[in-house]
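Case 265 in the screening queue. Each case pairs one protein sequence with one candidate compound; here the compound is zinc ion. For every case the pipeline is the same: read the inputs, emit a complex structure as tokens, and attach any notable structural observations.

Predict complex for case 265.
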Amino acid sequence: MKIIDCHVHLNHYDGTPFKPLDERVQDLVNAMHASAVDHAIVISSYVVNEDRPSVAQLLEATKNYDNIGIVAGYSLDNHTHDDLKFYKECLKDGRIRGIKLYCGYEHYYPYDKRYQKVYDLCAEYGVPAMFHTGDTFSARGKLRYSHPLNIDEVAVDNPELKIVMCHLGNPWILDCQEVIYKNKNVYADISGFVIGGFTHYYEEFMADKIVELLNYAGEPRYLLYGTDWPISNMESYLKFVASLDLSEYARELLMYRNSERLFKL
Ligand SMILES: [Zn+2]
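Case 265 output:
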């Protein structure tokens, strides 16, 4: 079955050896190859530095791979008007597939009026706005800004906007599933549940939560496969989704159909 991983990064993270960007790209290509992943979407960070490449750097580094797409990270604190202008040009010619906000990492609610320009841009070009939701990888994050219930505000006020809640709002998956169920313009990815690989116990624990979500929210036209690689391990993630009791059609929706449609791949 075709596999689209809609959530990977080419950042360098603390505790791992530093590699230049082109080597990180090669690592991604190798990991995709090893797990038979057909397509990946790289999401840029809320900040640009030596560890975290800009959208322009990502576009350059991945230009030879037509199965690697880019979603642009945007933050109020670290990005400028010119950055957003550049994103608009990229949306116009299809070089980026969406824009991601990092609420929690930056201390603003997703319904902050200053983000509206991003939502308008995404709606205009028919691409999703992605949001970090749930636990933050950094202890400096503030959880009230990343709580999934905040996304309801944006979804209701922007019915034309397609939204992706990253990480299912973990651990607030119940709140996430209600926002998904109620708002037909909201999707969610299952990325970032684990650092490294799943243990057997944790795999079962998270699988139960996904079953509960599916029972509540129904046929998964809203659910997207993503890993958060290199934070989470691709192989372990595939084993995790293989353990889910899904119909063939539901599995297709999760693994590639929803992403294909949403990101226009
Ligand atoms: Zn991520």
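Case 265 observations:
- The domain at 4-262 is CATH 3.20.20.140 (TIM Barrel).
- The chain has ten helices and eight strands.
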